[in-house]
Amino acid sequence: MHASFIELLKYLKLETTKGFNNKAIVGGFERLLPIWQEKAIAEGADSNLISQIVILMQPYDESSLESRKNIIHSVVALLKEDDREKESAHIQGSTPKKSVPSEPYQPRAVFAPLTVIQGIGDKMALKLKKLGLDTIYDLLHYYPRRYNDYSQLTPIRDLQFGEEVTISGSVQSIQKRNAKNSRLQLVECMISDGTGSLWVTWFNQPWLTNRLNIGTHIVCSGKIDTYLGRLCLNNPEWEPINAEHLHTNRIVPVYSLTAGIQQKWLRERIYQAITFWTQRIRDYLPENILQQEKLLSLNDALNGIHFPSDHENLHRSIERLSFDEVFLMQLGYARQKADWNSLSAHPYQIEDDILQKEISALPYELTESQMQSLAEIRSDLSSGKLMNRLLQGDVGAGKTVVARFAMEIIVRAGKQTAFLAPTALLAQQHYQTLLSMFLQDGILSQEEIICLLGATPEKEKQKIRKELASGSIKVIVGTHALLEDPVEFQDLQMVVIDEQHRFGVAQRAAIRAKGDNPHILIMSATPIPRSLNLTIHGDLDVSTLSDMPGGRIPVATYVLHPQQKEIAYEKIRTQVQSGYQAFVVYPQIDSDEDEPNNLAVTTGYTELEKNIFPDFRIGLLHGKLKQEEKDTIMEQFRRQELDILASTTVIEVGMDIPNATIILIEGANRFGLAQLHQLRGRVGRGEVASFCYLIPEEDNSIENERLRKMTETNDGFALAEFDLKTRGPGDFFGTRQSGYRGLKLANISDIKLITRARSQAEALLKRDPDLVLEENQALRYEFDHLWNNTTNGELS
Question: pTM score > 0.90 for this model?
Answer without folding.
Answer: no
